[in-house]
Amino acid sequence: MLYREAGQFKTSYAADQAIFPIQQDRIFVALILAVAFVGVPVLASWAGADYWLNTIMLPLMVYALAAIGLNILTGYAGQVSLGTGGFMAAGAFAAYKLATAFPGLNVVIVFLLAGLITAGVGVLFGFPSLRIKGFYLTVATLASQFFLIWLFNRIPWFTNYAPSGVISAPPRAVIWGIFVTGSEARPLAKYYFVLVIVTVLALAAKNLVRGRVGRAWMAIRDMDIAAEIIGIRPLQTKLLAFAISSFYCGVAGALWAHVYTSSVEALAFDIDTSFNVLFMIIIGGLGSILGSFLGAAFITLLPLFLENIPPKLGLEIPVNLVTNIQQIIFGSLIVFFLIAEPRGLARLWQIGKEKLRLWPFPH
User: Fold this and answer.
1) What gap in Å lies between CA 119 and CA 131, rounded to an integer?
2) Greater confidence, 89 or 51?
3) Cβ contacts of residue 61 below 8 Å, gap of 6+?
4) 178-181 and 167-168 strand pairing
5) Residues 181, 107: contact at Cβ < 8 Å?
6) Are 145 and 274 in contact (CB under 8 A)?
7) Is the backbone peptide bond immediately before 360 cis, with ω within 30 degrees of 0?
8) Which of 45, 124, 156, 174 is the most interior residue, by most CB within 10 Å?
9) Which pTM does this prediction carry?
10) Pairing state between β 167-168 and 263-264
């Protein structure tokens, strides 16, 4: 009775095609945004802002943004990729070179330009998708992962010839002297900066996949030959998916290096990062923007749960065993979701809402 659209009349096409056509959904999203913009900072001020914001919320949101990028490519366009970490590294180093070459450039513009540069890199590595697909495309994107990491490690120009190869993010203010990168940045400022970017880009992705471009991606994903017969051009469609996906991953990489860790190094974006983001969209749900957030939250919070809960229950678990348990849980859940519910946590959430719409009737 609480989740019904009865009595909610739509008098225009715009109202019928809204992202959240049911009022309860709009209220729920407004509550989530209120918690994110108000509740989390207030809670963090009580429980310790540095830990909550820096250790939990920042990596969760950055991972969610990277998962959205990969979900656009894999979940919506059907092009499996293992090069997410390399594209994130491209965004991180592009942002560093832009920030150091143009010190007066606003940090928002720096990150957007870094995303555009990464989009170009993604298009370059997306050309093999025109001839190969499936397992062979996965191997090709894996090659891009190793090549990009090797490139940033071997060519000192990317690190401004730093001897160690590890460089610190330069301090940059977003507006009115509010620093979001570097040692002068406060956790609350970094949190709001990342939150606004993730919210805007997530909304843009949601609208994109609901429109003509998203329908073309899904047609290519479901059957590329039939999509080409009805007039969809595989070349432009696949390359656009690689470009937009790489843009999101590039912005996520720039946020990770410059805002979260405050250091730019290629090894932070190794193959484990690519697998982690892939696990997020599998567990959260392929072809779902919501699933990207659910998967990122699960992957980010599970290690913290395994580290903090057992000691409170009187169980002493070695650190190396915690890591192994985490990998076992990830693998088991991936197998479970691929067999039982391939659309992940987002589908379970959708099923719950459908049950609520029919309650108390069984069907």
Assistant:
1) 20
2) 89
3) 194, 195, 198, 255, 296
4) unpaired
5) yes
6) yes
7) yes
8) 174
9) 0.92
10) antiparallel
Mind listing the pLDDT tens digit for each residue in 239-292?
999 999 999 999 999 999 999 988 888 888 999 999 999 989 999 999 999 999
Q: Which two tokens stand for residue 146?
A: 């190793």
Instruction: Collect contacts of 272-275 with beta carbons under 8 A, ≥24 apart.
Output: 272/85, 273/84, 273/85, 273/88, 274/81, 274/82, 274/83, 274/84, 274/85, 274/86, 274/142, 274/145, 275/82
| Nearest in space to 284 (alpha carbons), one of 274, 297, 276, 295 | 295
Q: Which amino acid is at 78?
A: G
CA gap 238, 355 in Å, rounded: 36
Q: Mention every residue, 6+ apart, whose C-beta is less than 8 A from residue 165.
A: 153, 156, 159, 265, 266
List C-alpha distances in Å: 349 to 31, 227, 262, 330: 17, 30, 35, 20
pLDDT of 16 higher than 80: no
Q: What is the pLDDT of residues 171-227, one digit of tens each?
A: 888 888 888 887 788 888 899 999 999 999 999 999 999 989 999 999 999 888 899
Q: Mapping DSSP to helix (H, G, I), strand (E, B) and coil, where does residue 167 land?
A: strand
Neighbours of 100 (CB within 10 A): 13
